[in-house]
């Protein structure tokens, strides 16, 4: 399965609903599990982004479906990064010749 790092920022609507953050996160993680994602961690962060999610999924399309579903709720905006393990990097660099 592919690894992903999701960087997120809360919208004004999302901040207003901060008291229900745990519930919203759990609902999003449950939806992701139904799609076949495995969430390794959800972290509230300080700095440029409000939260970071580390997740594993079967393919980019599944991760995109999750991102669209979360965005559709209006509480956050995300940027999803595909993350490669060192073994995957070895395979990539071997293709370089």
**Alpha carbon gap, first and last residue:** 25 Å
Largest sheet: 4 strands, antiparallel
Number of strands: 4
Gyration radius from CA atoms, angstroms = 15 Å
User: In percent, how helical is the residue content?
Assistant: 40-55%
Beta-strand proportion: 25-35%
Mean pLDDT: 95
Major sheet: order of its strands? 2-3-1-4
The SSE order reads EHHEEHEH
Reading off the top of the CATH hierarchy, the class is best stated as Alpha Beta
Oligomer: single chain
According to CATH, the fold-level topology is Alpha-Beta Plaits
Low-confidence segments, given as residue ranges, are none
Domain module count: 1
CATH homologous superfamily classification: Lrp/AsnC effector binding domain/regulation of amino acid metabolism (RAM) domain
Tally of contiguous helical segments: 4
The outline comes out as elongated
Q: Structural class, from secondary structure content?
A: alpha+beta
What is the CATH architecture assignment?
2-Layer Sandwich
């Amino acid at each position: 399965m592919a690894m992903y790092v999701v960087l997120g920022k809360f919208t004004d609507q999302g901040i207003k609903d901060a008291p229900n953050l745990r519930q919203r996160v759990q609902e999003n993680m449950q939806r992701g599990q139904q799609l076949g994602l495995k969430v390794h961690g959800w972290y509230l962060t300080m700095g440029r982004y409000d939260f970071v999610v580390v997740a594993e999924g079967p393919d980019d399309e599944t991760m995109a479906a999750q991102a669209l579903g979360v965005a559709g709720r209006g509480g956050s905006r995300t940027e999803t990064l595909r993350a490669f393990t060192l073994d995957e990097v070895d395979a990539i660099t071997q293709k370089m010749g």
